[in-house]
Specification:
Blueprint: H1 2-20, H2 22-41, H3 47-65, H4 70-89, H5 99-129
Helix pairs in contact: 2-3, 2-5, 3-4, 4-5
Length: 130
């Protein structure tokens, strides 16, 4: 009985600790989505800023992934793949303002919004459970 209680307590504590950072990730990614949308509105004038912002998305996703469930990770994995595709196509020193880059960045924006919405729903679920 004591082992069972200790195991349950550990699992509950781990779950709460993992979920505690989800609002922070959501806020950070929401700000990035808002900024990226502004850069897209002024493409290619803000191409350098957009590329720098896209480079910052990956570390946030990597950190967030360890705190999410398997189904929630799928959305971050899709976004991460798009970010890596963009970064492999465009050298950070001189990203190309071609049509393909623009389409990839819009695709990143769409996935970023989906990721933010997933985190919003995760927050709501976490609040409902408590």
């Amino acid at each position: 009985m004591t082992f069972f209680l200790a195991w349950q307590t550990y699992n509950l504590r781990s779950s709460v600790m993992r979920r505690a950072r989800v609002p922070e990730f959501r806020r950070d990614l929401q700000k990035m989505a808002d900024d990226l949308l502004e850069y897209l509105k002024n493409w290619p004038r803000h191409l350098q800023e957009a590329s720098a912002l896209i480079a910052r998305i990956e570390p946030v996703l990597t950190n967030a992934r360890s705190k999410l469930t398997r189904s929630e990770k799928a959305v971050t994995t899709e976004l991460s793949t798009k970010v890596k595709t963009y970064r492999s196509r465009t050298p950070s020193a001189s990203p190309l303002p071609d049509e393909e880059s623009y389409r990839i960045v819009w695709s990143i924006q769409e996935s970023l919004i989906a990721c933010v919405e997933t985190l919003v729903q995760t927050e709501k679920d976490s609040k409902q459970r408590m």
